[in-house]
């Protein structure tokens, strides 16, 4: 299996955490999301990966190189300018001026998921369409891209973020696809285009078969602060098979990296991650929060449902709630 992973977005909704770190590299319970994704793909039989990069591209080169350390043949392909999710697929699938043959797995790089990509791949081959979209059910689809399919599992319509009460289905695009070369050929070269807005409606209008692959695997988009905290919480609480936090569990659901110092008069509420080198002062309360590395929380501060980037500091008696605090420093510990 060959995979293209889309990792070139600006990650604006996760600012300031993404000011100097691309969204797919933010740590989830101490380990970059992309590292978790690449490990999982390797274990599922993927051998060849193309990272479709744009924003802060150098960070991917620095961390993953040629992928050998993860048992992958990794290529990092940088668009000259952002081409959108479809334009990026077209660009990354083109080798030496030619589109590569055979089907290609395409994944959003900002989803923590246990999706079985080998099963998605097999489903695509059996369904015989030009493209297959992994879909999952949600209770409220209003914030998502809805994918409507018929009894035979063929996609019939798309609906982007439907208003309450107007959704045609509660199955949503879960950011994983398989494309035949003929589908990728439909994307214009060197032009900005989106999968959901441009390619899929065009394929349907042309009468092409797009198959839906329903799955019930864990899947969490980390692109918002709430989504990012939810993904961390799931790993910290041991709810995701195969995904472990970095460090040691100092109390149920509370994990600490190397060299963390916690004052005995501090209170920690799970799920919480304290990255390596973090210092927590007396009288501090930390609830359901994710601290990257070398964070300092001075005495009597309260940190609740918050994310603190590497090297950040919370001053004495500060109240920090529902907030992300950025920094100029990046996480340094290789995971
Ligand atoms: P926001 O700015 O917060 O919307 O985030 P985003 O820019 O990452 O956009 P979105 O969450 O819609 O992107 C879904 C996936 O596609 C992410 O993994 C992005 O990194 C990736 N992506 C989005 N736009 C591009 C692009 O123009 N080029 C490439 N290579 N990847 C992209």
Features:
alpha/beta, six-stranded mixed sheet, seven-stranded mixed sheet, UDP N-Acetylglucosamine Acyltransferase, domain 1, 2 domains, 335 residues, 19% helix, Spore Coat Polysaccharide Biosynthesis Protein SpsA, Chain A, binds guanosine-5'-triphosphate, 7 helices, globular
Give an overview in words.
The chain is globular. It folds into 2 domains: about 1-220, Spore Coat Polysaccharide Biosynthesis Protein SpsA, Chain A, CATH 3.90.550; about 250-325, UDP N-Acetylglucosamine Acyltransferase, domain 1 (3 Solenoid), CATH 2.160.10.10. It is built from 7 helices and 29 strands. About 45% of the residues are buried. It has helices at about 35-45, 60-65, 85-90, 115-125, 180-185, 195-205, 225-235, and strands at about 1-5, 25-30, 30, 50-55, 75-80, 95, 100, 105-110, 110-115, 130-135, 145-150, 155-160, 170-180, 210-215, 220, 250, 255, 260, 265-270, 270-275, 280, 285, 290, 295, 300-305, 305-310, 315, 320, 325. Helix content is about 20%, strand content about 30%. Strand 16 and strand 17 form a beta hairpin. A 7-stranded mixed beta sheet has the order 5-4-1-8-13-10-14, sandwiched between helices. Strands 16-17-20-23-26-29 form a 6-stranded mixed beta sheet. A 4-stranded parallel beta sheet has the order 18-21-24-27, with no helix packed on it. With about 325 residues, it is an alpha/beta fold. Guanosine-5'-triphosphate binds near residues 7 and 79.
Give the SSE layout:
Blueprint: E1 2-6, E2 27-28, E3 31-32, H1 33-43, E4 48-53, H2 58-64, E5 73-78, H3 84-92, E6 94-95, E7 98-99, E8 104-108, E9 111-113, H4 117-127, E10 131-137, E11 145-149, E12 155-160, E13 171-179, H5 181-184, H6 195-205, E14 210-214, E15 219-221, H7 225-236, E16 248-251, E17 254-256, E18 261-262, E19 267-269, E20 272-274, E21 279-280, E22 285-287, E23 290-291, E24 296-297, E25 302-304, E26 307-308, E27 313-314, E28 319-321, E29 324-325
Parallel strand pairs: 1-4, 1-8, 4-5, 10-14, 17-20, 18-21, 19-22, 20-23, 21-24, 22-25, 23-26, 24-27, 25-28, 26-29
Antiparallel strand pairs: 2-3, 6-7, 8-13, 9-15, 10-13, 11-12, 16-17
Helix pairs in contact: 3-6
The structure holds guanosine-5'-triphosphate.
């Amino acid at each position: 299996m060959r995979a293209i992973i889309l990792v070139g977005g600006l990650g604006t909704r996760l600012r300031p955490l993404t000011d100097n770190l691309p969204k797919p590299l933010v740590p989830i319970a101490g380990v970059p999301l992309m590292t978790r994704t690449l490990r999982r793909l390797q274990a599922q039989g993927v051998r060849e990966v193309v990272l479709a990069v744009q924003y802060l591209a150098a960070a991917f080169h620095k961390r993953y190189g040629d992928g050998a350390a993860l048992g992958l043949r990794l290529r990092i392909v940088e668009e000259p300018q952002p081409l959108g999710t479809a334009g990026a697929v077209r660009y990354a699938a083109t080798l030496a001026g030619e589109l590569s043959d055979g089907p290609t797995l395409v994944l959003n790089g900002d989803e923590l998921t246990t999706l079985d990509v080998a099963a998605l791949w097999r489903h695509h081959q059996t369904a015989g369409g030009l493209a297959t979209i992994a879909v999952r059910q949600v209770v409220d689809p209003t914030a998502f891209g809805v994918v409507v399919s018929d009894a035979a599992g063929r996609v019939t319509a798309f609906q982007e973020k439907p208003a309450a009460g107007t959704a045609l289905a509660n199955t949503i695009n879960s950011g994983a696809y398989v494309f035949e070369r003929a589908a990728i050929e439909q994307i214009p070269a060197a032009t900005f285009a989106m999968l959901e807005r441009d390619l899929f409606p065009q394929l349907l209008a042309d009468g092409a078969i797009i198959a839906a692959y329903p799955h019930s695997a864990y899947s969490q988009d980390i692109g918002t602060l709430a989504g990012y905290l939810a993904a961390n919480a799931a790993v910290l609480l041991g709810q995701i098979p195969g995904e472990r936090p970095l460090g040691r569990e100092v109390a149920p659901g509370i994990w600490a990296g190397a060299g963390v110092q916690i004052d005995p008069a501090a209170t920690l509420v799970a799920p919480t991650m304290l990255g390596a080198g973090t210092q927590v002062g007396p009288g501090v309360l930390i609830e359901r929060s994710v601290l990257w590395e070398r964070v300092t929380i001075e005495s009597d501060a309260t940190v609740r449902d918050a994310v603190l980037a590497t090297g950040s500091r919370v001053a004495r008696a500060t109240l920090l709630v529902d907030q992300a605090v950025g920094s100029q420093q990046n996480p340094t510990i290789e995971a």
